[in-house]
Design goal:
Layout (H helix, E strand, L loop, with lengths): L3 E5 L6 H9 L16 E10 L2 H4 L9 E3 L2 E10 L14 H8 L4 E7 L18 H21 L3 H11 L3 H8 L7 H10 L12 H15 L2 E6 L4 H13 L4 E3 L2 H12 L3 E2 L8 E2 L7 H18 L4 H12 L2 E7 L17 E4 L4 H9 L1 H5 L1 E6 L5 E2 L9 E7 L2
Parallel strand pairs: 1-4, 1-5, 5-6, 6-7, 10-14
Antiparallel strand pairs: 2-4, 3-4, 8-9, 10-11, 12-13, 12-14
Helix pairs in contact: 1-10, 4-8, 7-8
């Protein structure tokens, strides 16, 4: 399955603008809270160094595209309804939000770092809200949502039944959380880090369950914080404060700037590659003086200062750092690195770190081929690879199957 990134945040923070900037979609945007009711979907791209230059070939991608040795690989984005306090109790569009969220592998939290929105997403003026409170409340709402799912249908009755049947708590919790895209290994890690007794869950207190829910959310729905509307002066100040607390998973961003750069690039008015720190104007005569000034401000206040608009950086960080994906290139010909139709390096496929070769064949190529799997071959070294070979980033692999 393709990685799914959930775009979350309170109403009017800029979630739909981020989606439009990343995917060139036309999701409706407005300062009116709950403009997004049903989830907006889009296809965006992460970018990574392609192996074409290393292998000295001219590639012919099919499932992705390559620009100057940079491979752009598709991912799915899901922009859900804005989150408000007590969403886990159904407040606002809480129930729908959380149900939509269950599909996501990783979350990008769009925060209005200018602090101009109240808890319900209504505009109150720049600097009147603390962005840190937005971050903490969203984490807490998702933690409580996990806890609610775990405790549904009478937790105490479940525990008594569990003890009678002498089941395994990891399996039981996995069944309860099956609709939330949680892995068993995440459940086990959350139990261990929380210091809980997996053999006697009846000893878990309500605080224990909440702490477990928090850890499970951190493993199964990791969150990247995107400090949106970074072009404002108050935003820079607020961003520096957040940097002291959130090291790494915090990215400055102007979704609106990226959207206009992508829009002008599509119309060939400018030359711009997503994630770049610069652009060039190809047709200035097609721009008004106001538009030229806006582009100048984007270059001076955002690109020159932060190095990019932040949108592409956010996508890359979410997929490669949080979802822990690597890229693999399957081929049929070891000499030309092509498929059976002579397409060179046709597919760049994202997979989880630690994926074994046969598992990759089954899940990403074809389940029938996995049944006939014999071995793999490393296209660089020509060495045989067993079914338990753990794939590495930028592996180029030929799969050999029985006839």
């Amino acid at each position: 399955m393709t990685v799914i990134i959930g775009i979350v945040g309170k109403p009017s923070a800029g979630k739909s603008t981020f989606l439009n900037a990343a995917c060139l979609t036309n999701a409706k945007t407005s300062e009116i809270p709950f403009t997004t009711i049903t989830p907006n979907r889009g296809v965006a791209y992460v970018k990574t160094l392609c192996v074409c230059k290393e292998l000295k070939v001219k590639d012919n991608p099919k499932n992705s595209f390559c620009l100057n040795g940079i491979r752009f690989i598709p991912i799915n984005l899901l922009d859900v309804a804005g989150l408000v306090p007590d969403a886990h109790k159904g407040k606002g569009l809480g129930n729908q939000f959380l149900n939509d969220l269950s599909q996501a592998d990783v979350l990008i939290h769009i925060v209005d770092v200018s602090g101009s929105l109240d808890k319900m997403g209504k505009r109150i003026g720049e600097g009147k809200n603390d962005p840190l409170e937005d971050i903490l409340f969203l984490e807490n709402e998702i933690d409580l949502w996990f806890k609610q799912i775990i405790e549904r249908q009478d937790w105490n009755k479940f525990l008594k039944s569990f003890l009678r049947q002498k089941g395994k708590i990891v399996d039981e919790l996995y069944n309860r959380l099956s609709g939330v895209k949680v892995k068993k290994i995440d459940i086990l890690k959350a139990i261990q880090i929380s210091g809980l007794d997996k053999k006697n869950p009846s000893s878990w207190t309500e605080d224990d369950v909440l702490n477990f829910s928090k850890k499970l959310r951190e493993f199964s729905k990791p969150i990247l914080i995107v400090a949106n509307k970074i072009d404002k002066e108050i935003s820079k100040e607020n961003f520096e404060k957040l940097k002291e607390r959130y090291k790494g998973a915090l990215i400055p961003c102007s979704s609106l700037a990226e959207y206009y750069l992508r829009k002008y690039e599509k119309e060939r008015i400018i030359d711009y590659i997503p994630g770049s720190n610069d652009f060039s104007i190809l047709q200035p005569e097609k721009l008004t003086q106001k538009e030229l000034e806006a582009l100048h401000n984007i270059k001076e206040k955002i690109l020159n200062y932060y190095g990019s608009t932040g949108v592409q950086d956010a996508l890359n960080f979410a997929v490669f750092n949080l979802a822990k994906q690597i890229c693999v290139y399957p081929v049929a010909d070891l000499n030309t690195y092509s498929d059976n139709n002579n397409n060179v390096l046709p597919d760049a496929i994202l997979i989880d770190e630690g994926t074994k070769l046969k598992e990759f064949v089954k899940e990403k190529i074809h389940s029938d081929l996995a049944k006939k799997f014999m071995f793999g071959i490393d296209a660089r070294t020509k060495k045989r690879l067993s079914e338990d070979y753990e794939l590495k980033n930028n592996d180029v692999i030929k799969v050999v199957v029985s006839k």
